[in-house]
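hey
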């Protein structure tokens, strides 16, 4: 059965910004606002151990990791710039009563 968890108020994440959140099991995720649409990936870069929410920068739908400048498409999780060559897990988000929620 699909379950969901409330993360934070959608209004707290402006367009172009990244924010860290945690799943109920403690898994860190990075939440992105791409021009008013929300996406989430696992927070840890698949190249090494960088936190994308802390060390990443969002350019449109692309997050660039600040450690070695690898990139992912946050809408699909696809690794699209070396040295990142392993896709990153994505999570499905939705907004309910102004709150951003994640399907777990
Ligand atoms: S840790 Fe992210 S590109 Fe190296």
């Amino acid at each position: 059965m699909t379950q969901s968890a409330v993360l934070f108020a959608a209004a707290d994440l402006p367009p172009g910004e990244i924010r860290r959140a945690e799943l109920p099991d403690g898994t860190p995720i990075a939440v992105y606002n791409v021009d008013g649409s929300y996406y989430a990936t696992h927070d840890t870069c698949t190249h090494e151990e960088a936190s994308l929410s802390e060390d990443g920068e969002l350019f449109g739908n692309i997050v660039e990791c600040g450690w070695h400048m690898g990139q992912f498409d946050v809408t699909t999780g696809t690794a699209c710039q070396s040295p990142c060559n392993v896709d990153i897990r994505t999570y499905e988000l939705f907004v309910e009563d102004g709150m951003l929620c994640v399907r777990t």
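The radius of gyration is 13 Å. The helical segments are 52-55.
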